[in-house]
Amino acid sequence: MSRTPSEINEEIAIKIAKFKEIFVPYPPHVHLHAQCDLMRKLNRELRGKPQYGLRVLAPTGSGKSTTADSYIAYVEKHTPRTEDYIPVIKIDLERHMTSKKLMVLILQEFGDSFPNYGNELMLKKRVIACFERFRTELLIVDEVQHLNYRSGSKNDVTDTLKGLLDTGVVSIVFLGTEEAEKMFNRNLQLNGRLRPPCDLKPLSAKKAEDQKLFAGFVAHLDKALMDTGVLPELSGLNDAKILASLFEVSGGVVGRVVRLLHVALEAAIRREGCQIDIADLSWAVDAWAVEQGFVKRNPFRDGRFD
Q1: Among 157, 251, 276, 287, who pairs with 235 as Cys (CB 3.0-4.6 Å)?
Q2: Which residue in 103, 196, 120, 111 sits closest to 154, CA to CA?
Q3: Which of 8, 56, 63 is nearest to 261 (CA)?
Q4: d(Cα 299, Cα 293) in Å, to the nearest integer?
Q5: Whole-angstrom Cα distance, residue 170 to residue 159?
Q6: Where are the alpha helices (H) located in the chain, listed in sequence order?
Q7: pTM for this model (two decimals)
Q8: How far apart, in whole angstroms, are the C-alpha atoms of residue 2 and residue 142?
Q9: In whole angstroms, how far apart are CA 61 and each of 20, 103, 230, 266?
C-alpha cells in the first residue's frame, strides 16, 4: 500500500529531527567544547574579578551555533538547571543592536517577566543581579557580526559586553562569522580581554590533515545515521569520489555537509531508499547548494560517477 504525502512528510520530519540530534565528535568542535569548559572553570576561580572572553569566528554553516547548543545540552544533562542555578545561557543578537536590547535579551533568557521594564542602567543592574543570583558561569553571544553596526559610542554594544566582563560575574563566548573580525579590531580594549581565538576555519583540500579530518567527519556521520535508525544501511559516503564532491560543494565547511545531507535524506525517504545514493546527493546539490549560492556547478553530475 502506497504511503500518502502526509505520511511521507511525517517520516521525513521525524527522521530529520533525529538527524539533528546527532553530535559527531569532530575534533575542532570537541576543542570548542573544551574551551567553553575552561571558560566556566576560569569564571569560578576569578569570580568577582575581570573575566575572560573567547572569540569563535567561522563561515556560515560551520556548526558553531549547533556546537554551542550541544555543549549547553551536555552541561545541563550533568548539572541540570535549578531554581537558583543556570550554568550557561545563550543569546542570539539581532541587527542594529543597542545596549538596552542586549540587556533585554539576557533578561528574557533568564525568564524575567518584565524584561523591558526600566532604563538602560536599571536593566544592566538587573542583568548583573541575575548572573549573581543564578551563579551563571558562561554567557554565549551568537551572531556577533551584527555588532558591526553602531550609531554612536553610546550604543556601542561591544563596550557594554566588555563592561560585563569587567564586573567579574560571567565569562563570555562570542560566536559569529568572519565579518565580526572588524568589530573586534576596532575595540582593542575588548580584544585585550580575550583568550586566544578558537575560530573554526574551512578545511583545505590541499592539506592531508584536513582531508583526514573531513573524511573522518563524513564517515562518523554516515555511521551515526545507521546507528540511530535514521537509515537502515550505510550510504558509503566515505567513497573517494563522493568525498571529493562533498568537499567541493561544502568548501571544506563540515556544517554544510550536514545541511546537504538533510536535503538528500529527504530524497532518500521519498523513494523509500535504505541509504542515501548519488541521485539523492545530486538532487540535494541542485535543490539546496546551487539554489542557495554555495556552488555554481554540481560535481555529482560531471560524469565521475558513470
Answers
A1: 276
A2: 120
A3: 63
A4: 14
A5: 15
A6: 5-20, 27-45, 64-78, 99-109, 120-133, 157-167, 181-186, 188-191, 208-227, 240-250, 254-270, 278-284
A7: 0.88
A8: 44
A9: 14, 27, 22, 19
Per the structure block, which three cell numbers stand in for 304? 565521475
Which one-letter amino acid corresponds to residue 157? V
Write out the three cell numbers for 66.
549547533
- Angle, vertex CA 6, rays to CA 4 and CA 12, nearest 5: 105
d(CA 106, CA 133): 14
What is the C-alpha separation between 61 and 261, in angstroms, rounded? 13
CA atoms within 13 A on the CB side of 49: 6
Which 3 state secondary structure label does DSSP give 291? Answer: coil
Provide the grid cell at 266: 529527504
Render each residue's pLDDT in the chain as its tens digit; 306 residues.
Answer: 688 989 999 999 999 999 998 989 899 999 999 999 999 999 999 999 999 999 999 998 888 999 999 999 999 999 999 999 999 999 999 888 899 999 999 999 999 988 888 888 999 999 999 999 999 999 999 999 988 655 454 447 888 899 999 999 999 999 999 999 988 888 888 888 999 999 999 999 999 999 999 999 999 999 999 999 999 999 999 999 999 999 999 999 999 999 999 999 999 999 999 999 999 999 999 999 999 999 999 999 876 776
